[in-house]
Structure formats: structure tokens, C-alpha cells
Amino acid sequence: MNDFRSTLREDLAHLLTNPRKFQAVIAKESVWDISWPVNQLLGSEAVLTEYLEPLARALSHAHRRDILFIGGSNIREQGGQWCACVTHYVGNFDAPLFGLNPSHKLAFLRSGEFYRIENGQITEAKIILDLPDLMYQSGRLPLPSLGTELAFPAPATQDGLCPTGYDGAVSLDVVQRMLGDLHVYDPKTGGSAGQTGEDGTWADDMLWYGPAGVGSNYRWEGFVKDHRTPFLHAFPDRKGGNHYCRIGDANYAAVSGWPSMSMTFQGDYLGQKATGQPLTLRVMDFYRVADGRIAENWVTLDYGDLFAQMGRDLIAEANQIPLP
């Protein structure tokens, strides 16, 4: 376990400092699914020229700053050995990134990432870059914000980088029980059984870290106010799951679907009028479990893709907003 996690983490350190060197870690026929507007890339050369090199050009003198890095055996049908991580790409935003104009200031580009590893190479990757948060950092987010916008912190226990201690199956079981209960809710109150209280899966002092536009919040009441209620108002028939990967590692777990949610747009959301149209959402969730409950949850959502389905180009809109 420790070998393949640590080795990949060391390799990823070269992702922006030397993209050509990192390319050797990517299987020739590798498939990378990246958040909007990049989307799917086939083969290591496409990954290099359409993702890695543009990222390196945009963020000068950039490096990775991982806050969470775990790995394990995927319990979903797809199987395989996977690593999941939350990181920031730290650098000066000095050149356009996928069409987004630069701020010429320090940037922490948030990223959620899942990698399948076979024979020491990446054969599949899923990556959500929080481009709306990059817009927020430069004062050009064309969306309102529900919670508190902040850079994702490292786990409170400071042990999220290739953790040790015990099998992650117990942590993953807690998360899976929560997901099963969360799927069913009271349409009047938005409440779900098994979330809080004596037998709940969430700690009383839970922290939920969300993407730009949603923001972060504290305790179940904050999560309901800043995310759950507005989301269910907009997408009351949302169905989650459809995960390609679920792994546990010590007191951590991670799950992701591409897309994970399907729903219809029935209520206004983040300033966008409802249209009734069907939508999908790419989701990544990373969890820390303590004493049998979820204490922290880091969430990356591909809101660029979600709003593109609504007919909006957030990059084009952000570029129309003058830098402060």
C-alpha cells in the first residue's frame, strides 16, 4: 500500500515542474477525464499538450501542495488500485488557463484527483479543477456565494498524506452508510434519517468544505442552510451514486462518480433561473472519519460543466468582469 501511494505522490511532484518527465508515468493509452472545459483526453501525448503544458504555462513557478493523499483497492465493479487526493497548484497566475484570463497574482488552484495505477503507471485519471474558485480569487466569480469561500485546509489531525494505522474498510463503511441514508429525504424538511444524533454518521462538529459558489460551512445546520436546502430546492429529484471508485485508507475514504448525479433543474440556483432541463454533475468526495463518524468532508464539483449544460460559459463571463 505505502509503496504505490508514496511513489505516485513523488511522481506527481514533477507534474508542473517538468511535464515531459511526468509524462513517463502516464500509460500510452491512458484515459483522462478532466473538468470543463478540457473534458476527455486520450493518450499520454494529449494529456501533455492539452492539459499539463497549458497548466504549467498558466501558473508560473508552480508546485503542488497536497493536503490529502490516500490509496486503496476500489470496491466498485471496475476494481483496481487507486489513489485519491486533494491538492492545490500554487503559483503566479500569469498566462491564460483554458481561456480564463490571468490575474497576475498568487493563485491556489484547487484540484480533486483520482488515479488508477497499473504496473507503476497511470492508466486512468479523473480530475476536477475548481476554476470558479480561481475566478473568485481574482475577484471575477460570475456566481453568488452561499457559504464561506476559503482555501481547503489540511485535515485537523494533520495525518492525511499517505496515512498509516489500520485498514480503511471501517471508514469506508461509515461513508457508505451515510450515502445510503442521504439518498432518501423528506421533501418538506430536506432531512434524512441516520445523519445526525446519537446514531448519526456525521460528527456534531463536522466541517464541510465545498467548491466556489457553494463555499464551506460548519455543523449539520450550516451544511443544510448553505448547501443542502438550496440544492434540493433546485434539483429535488436528484439521484446520486453511479460511482466508478470507492476506496478507504486508514481513517479516510473517497468516492467519485463521472457523472455522479442526474437531476432536473426545477428551482432557481445560484442566480440561474430554472429550466426544467435534465442535468448531470461530476462529483468527488473525500472524508475523514473519527470515532465512527464523519468529521471532515472535502468536496469538488464540476460547476463549470454544470453551468455549461445550462447554457452559460463561466470563463467567458469571468473575462468580462474587470480585475479589481
Summarize the structure.
The chain is an alpha+beta fold. It is built from eight helices and twelve strands.
Distance between the termini: 47 Å
Quaternary state of the chains = single chain
Q: Report the sheet-strand fraction.
A: 35-45%
CATH class of the largest domain: Alpha Beta
CATH structural fold name of the largest domain: Nuclear Transport Factor 2, Chain: A
Percent range for helical residues?
25-40%
Q: Let me know the average pLDDT.
A: 95
The whole-angstrom Rg is 19 Å
What is the number of helical segments per DSSP (H or I, 4+ residues)?
8
CATH architecture level-2 label of the largest domain: Roll
Largest sheet, if any? 6 strands, mixed
The total domain count is 2
Structural class: alpha+beta
Could you say which overall geometry the principal axes of the C-alpha atoms support?
globular
- Number of separate strands: 12
> What order do the SSEs take from the amino end to the carboxyl end, as H and E?
HHEEHEEEEHHEEHEEEEHH
Strand order of the largest sheet: 2-1-6-5-4-3
